[in-house]
Amino acid sequence: MYRGGGSRMPSVGTGSVDIRSILSSILNVVKSRANAICTAPCDGAILKMHYRWTFFMLIGGFFTVWYQWYNRDVITCVSHYNADTQVRLDYINVCLSYPYVEVVDEEGNTTKRYLLFYRWVQWSFLVLAGIYYIPRKISKNMENPKAKKLIEDLAANASRYENAEHILLEKVYMYMINNLKTHNGLYMKYLTLNVIALAVDIGAFHYFDFLLQGRFITYGFEAYPFERDPEYFTDYISQTFPPFALCTLTIQNALVGKRTEIFGCHLTIMELYEKVFLFIWLWLIILITMTALYIVILLLAMIPKFRELWLRTAKPINGTEKTNVLISKVNKNCRIGDIYLLYRFKSHLSHAKFYELMIRLSDPNINMKNREQTVIDAKPPPSKQTQMMPHHNNPSAPHPDSRHRKPQQHSITPPMNPDYISQIYGNPETLARHGQVSQNDVAQRTPLLNKNNTNTSILIE
After folding, report:
1. 86-99 pLDDT, tens digit each
2. Which residue intervals make up region (Disordered) (predicted)?
3. Which helix (H) or strand (E) is 217 found in, with range?
């Protein structure tokens, strides 16, 4: 479609595109995402500035420019030979892709600078929005599920002041005891993700510089103090985004036969481009600076004294030990990955509870406790066969009927009379009854005794 020499892109389908409803949906998504709490161990504020804030900024830039292309006149052209004649739509389509401005160098030579980015800026925003989400996709594959769940529990109950915080403190302590000195990989993954985010920032900065033909890197510096030249358009912003351009159709375009057509065009969206790119330039400068400084801070954390700053907290009124001494003891018991994870826990605990956690982690025998806990956790549970084993095969197991048995009463053996013992063992009949001697030996040893004689004295025998 064209109207009065102007052109706008046709609407999608048979009806118009409801951009307001689309922007309203995007705004609701941005609000919900902005209020979400960062609970992933491999996530942080700097990464959130990339995959969330910059992502939605570029998506917003895409829809803003896309709305202009589909609902406004994006170009108006007139012929240099007949300004009253309307320009054909196919001519305007070529001018959208290949407008140019004439640039005069210091030697007086005139060259053409084609504004090839004019038609494709919004799609560049969309592609870069997808690239800025790459750090988040990588971080999801590097998460520690247990640590993430623990941070989620801390964040969900951070506003509760009953016994919930005490229970969560026990969970944090048991987790640290069982997994002490095993989080260096988590720290290195987090450092790597921030380096990737910085690489994305630098890549985006150079991509925009390539898109704007080498005029983006110094765009903000050259544009300051933002004085404009509305008559000759000689200022840096107008030179980068010229509102008026030329368009030439020659025999090579195969649209004008054997002649050459020159058109003067007004690029109406250039006024929007200059403001959008100025904001993007300023944001990327801030983002690159903050990301680079944060990486330096993460690298300095490899120095033991420096990473003690991560554990700084207020001493409660009932605290008995100085905070500096306490932090030094915790630092000796932990590695850099453990300190990083404690720093993440710190943001969801009160000062008093975090101080109590450090008191417990400052124990010099904490490594022995870790080993004992590991041995207890590594001991296999009793099998079903062991539980059903008879009592005589498993002496350590309690007897199944032991609960119903009465305790045995041990009788006390009375002292024995030695005369009585000698009389018993001196009687052959008694020994014969117990199998000690035979009956013949008894008869031989008692020949003088009569059967009817009732005298059983040992002296007579």
Report:
1. 788 888 888 888 99
2. 375-415
3. none
Task: Enter the tokens of residue 14.
Answer: 């048979």
Q: What is the DSSP letter of 309?
A: G
Closest listed residue to residue 442, CA positions, set 152, 198, 434: 434
List, as one string, the DSSP characters of 340-387: HHHHHHHTTS-HHHHHHHHHHHT-TTHHHHHHHHHHHHHSPPPPHHHH
Residues 6+ apart with CB under 8 A from 253: 94
Dihedral of CA atoms 96, 98, 101, 103 in degrees, nearest 10, equals 160
125 phi and psi angles, rounded to 5 deg: -60, -40
Closest to 211 measured CA to CA, from 93, 122, 283, 104: 122
* pLDDT (tens digit per residue) in 83-135: 777 788 888 888 888 999 988 887 878 888 999 999 889 999 999 999 999 99
Q: Taking the CB of residue 201, how many other CB atoms lie within 10 A of it?
A: 23
Contact 157, 165 (CB under 8 A): yes
- The token duo for 212 is 């704007």
Report the interhelical angle of 351-361 vs 164-178 (nearest 10°). 30
Provide the residue type at 270 as one letter: M
DSSP helix/strand/coil, 54: helix
Structure token digits, residue 209: 């510089």
Which residues, including other chains, have CB under 8 Å from residue 330's CB and lie 6 or more apart? 311, 339, 342, 358, 361, 362
Distance in angstroms (rounded) separating the CA atoms of residues 254 and 375: 83
